[in-house]
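yo

u said u wanted the structure for the complex thing, so here. seqs first:
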Amino acid sequence: MGINIDKIRADFPILQRKVNDVPLIYLDNAATSQTPKQVIDTIANYYAKYNANIHRGVHTLSQEATELYEGARKNIQTYFNAKESHEIIFTSGTTHGINLVASGYASLLNKGEELIVSEIEHHSNIVPWQMLCEQTGAELKVIPMNINGELEMSAFDRLLNAKTRLVVVNHVSNALGTINPIKEIIKKAHAVNAKVLIDGAQAAPHIKADFQEIDVDFYTVSAHKMYGPTGVGFLYGKEELLNSLPPYQGGGEMIHEVTFEKTTYAELPHKFEAGTPNISGGIAFGATIDFIKGIGIDNIANHEKTLLEYATKSLLNIEGLHIYGNVANKTAVISFNIEGIHPYDLGNILDKLGIAVRTGHHCAQPIMSYYNIPGTVRASFAVYNTLSEIDTLVKGIQKAITLLK
Amino acid sequence: MGINIDKIRADFPILQRKVNDVPLIYLDNAATSQTPKQVIDTIANYYAKYNANIHRGVHTLSQEATELYEGARKNIQTYFNAKESHEIIFTSGTTHGINLVASGYASLLNKGEELIVSEIEHHSNIVPWQMLCEQTGAELKVIPMNINGELEMSAFDRLLNAKTRLVVVNHVSNALGTINPIKEIIKKAHAVNAKVLIDGAQAAPHIKADFQEIDVDFYTVSAHKMYGPTGVGFLYGKEELLNSLPPYQGGGEMIHEVTFEKTTYAELPHKFEAGTPNISGGIAFGATIDFIKGIGIDNIANHEKTLLEYATKSLLNIEGLHIYGNVANKTAVISFNIEGIHPYDLGNILDKLGIAVRTGHHCAQPIMSYYNIPGTVRASFAVYNTLSEIDTLVKGIQKAITLLK
Amino acid sequence: MQTLKEIQESIIEEFAIFSDWTEKYEYIIDLGKSLPLIEPQHKTDENIVKGCQSNVWLHADFQDGKMIYKADGDAIITKGIIALLLRVYSNQSPKEIVNSDLSFIDSIGLKEHLSPTRANGLVAIVKRIRIEAIARTK
Amino acid sequence: MQTLKEIQESIIEEFAIFSDWTEKYEYIIDLGKSLPLIEPQHKTDENIVKGCQSNVWLHADFQDGKMIYKADGDAIITKGIIALLLRVYSNQSPKEIVNSDLSFIDSIGLKEHLSPTRANGLVAIVKRIRIEAIARTK
Ligand SMILES: Cc1ncc(COP(=O)(O)O)c(C=O)c1O
Ligand SMILES: Cc1ncc(COP(=O)(O)O)c(C=O)c1O
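structre next:
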């Protein structure tokens, strides 16, 4: 049942690295996870054997590259249980996916209609909706958080009404790790005929969402946060909803026919995939899914739960350390501060000790405003992290305190 | 002065491949060029040693990845002689770059104002402007082509007027290879205060544009067509013009400060680079520039000129073969048809012989309409192609004719 | 009258004798050349499938419990494959068509031509052949 | 009065004695702690540079031909580096400041703190120090 951490670690060449002459301890996984050699090799192998522009090509390379790329799409579809593979739109990442939907809604929203977002979102899931509301005159409502970093669901109930067109919430908060009750949110939103977009960037590395089971309308993800390459992600959307959105970008692939008088658009998924895509990235995203399936997402989640519990307990032993986000249902992310110490200073010292954590507002300034803090130190874990790395982290923090106080 | 083709070919692992049991002859470079091991290794090395989310990170990996990424931006800036490195906006490719500008102009254009495009554009440089004109009520004017595949410059002179806001033309036509007189176009457009966007996708692998010298306003490129990876490109824009455009996508990085009341945007280039970018792609794009510099773009152009002349002469010896695009000033692209043979059939047979060419409309349907043909067969050359490959191509075509006629 | 399955099998047998791709393609090209497959009046906009690579036309009729398909294409190799498809599907009952599979194309080594991303119109033809048959089973 | 160049050299000398990064950081942290660098009334919105990681403030005065800089930051390491910067730049003539370079930061192994992408506000501080000096050379 368990997993073999040594074996998994051996798949990640970067974990052999030293930083400032000590072995790297990488705890910045919520920003970008590391990449196993299976994925790196897939990229190198693509360029060494199959590289060609896909779709519409008659020659063998183009056919093979297309099959690999479309195979990756199918792999993603199956893994997340989407109904159709053309409901998986390849994007350059979560931000792109969210903007695609926000831009499409510009033509569907009317003044006075409402969008609901939450207070614990990443800027990528706030700013596009602000821009959309500015453009359309729709109103942006905010589900407030409480001190534990949870959404106030009773407030959500009050915000929902017949004018609500869209609810956008992350599945997991990047700054706090909170797992939001998205199934409940989707159900309630559907009851007033609103659609729901879930930002799954922080969930996908830890939890498998079953798109049909949760009945989500849109779900979007970045490969680079789930052991995959940079520059690729996907947007899932229900077929009829994707069909109802106008195309986002114009260009090759998304076209059926072009004349200067009239242009007709291609079918899904091509309608939203203008231009040559990140072919190597898409194919490597497929290999990423295989990597996760190989270990098993439940095994990953179990291991990370052990890490989270151990790290929480160990960190709370440090005097003056305060953890932000204290819900039972969270992923292995710990955002914290130490009384009298600026997060930037702590991050600096930890880096000198070879420990990579993220410091700052984590692109979630509303959360920082809520707690009235400039930022936090965030340690975020992945399947390759170990309990002994957590011990080193704790020792590092203690050393930093001695230096800084 | 010459180049060592064997040495260059040895850098491209894919050229060792066999297709249908014969050695691959890759003549589909205008769709996607092949990738040298220097670029492949840069990607693999990035993931094995430096992978981290860039900007704002305090830890060493993030700092190093940021330096590599920003170093690539500087490398591109220097190579194309942009004034400032923040005038180079990383994109996912040419299509993205064009859409970014088109979307920005939505807030700058007024009804009755005019855009000029040409008849020999790729769909990616047509559709976004059609969408823009539909949105704003601006009018799209088309510079016609002539039978040789050249722009009718006298018609351009007549189309230009005080209402012209933007002229968008490719530097090199993907379907014909025609090199357009962009310096003249820019000069004339500036004389009526219009701005110019040049689609450089097909030029960058063959010609070095000096942005300050030609005084271009926007110029955009895809790495995958110039020996680089898929999923990355750049948009160059003059600083004051980029500043005048509203942000394209909302998200992380492009933000200075976010509250639910008001969001302020970051400075260039971040304003246009929302979300985690294609970090490995950007860094590998830098390696691509180094690869081209290592050979020398003039040496590349000279070699390709030899290929073009030899191939043109050889192909014209084939009875019934007609070449589309017959200007003196063209890149190594030959679009052709053979009387009585459908391009798709010819492409099929050539593929069986290991020869990869592209067939179809090449995402340039207006050109096909002009010639009233369903498509062409396009052989496009790169620095690693050889005269003997052209001989094989000619033999292959002759064999195909025997089979098909 | 051969059944659909029997026709597929005899096509597979015929293709087994080809010793290389050239022979196979010569045969397909001959098939493609041999027949004007559709009456001009049926080459309508409604019946066209515009592939990115080549255009195809399909016209369906229903006579005496059998589907009668006519089709055409502008590329000769596509046309040859269309000829094979019609040999299999035309003159069969809707039910047989709906229950059939296309694996014979695989067996004769022409799978790539029916790849959904090839944009030669053939996938759309096969889809239409089935749709027209399904419409007649109700 | 030491010249700007001399101050930089003496800082380099001071740092040369540290045998590891811990000693160096202890020293910088001490520098950071030792001084409230700016008067509260000068901690205005105008003088703030909001870095993504930490905030810094800079106030400039011109007295008797010399620039007088006061600055502050909310992170202690940043503050320590600010203290070094002020030791170098404050009380120097605008001309000397404009003609100076920052290579001493490199020599003492703190280059990463002045990386433009670090978002700790220090790069902006250096920029402002120069801009204020340039304004007084005209
Ligand atoms: C002239 C031209 N413009 C634009 C594009 C689109 O480039 P991409 O697909 O990389 O976005 C192409 C690619 O074929 C092209 O040839
Ligand atoms: C919750 C959440 N949403 C969206 C994003 C943006 O993802 P990307 O930068 O890959 O577009 C992130 C990344 O930090 C995130 O954590």
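The pocket of pyridoxal-5'-phosphate (ligand 1) is lined by residues A 252, 275-276; B 93-95, 122, 124-125, 170, 174, 199, 201-202, 222, 363 (CB under 6 Å). The CA atoms of residues 6 and 118 of chain C lie 28 Å apart.
cya
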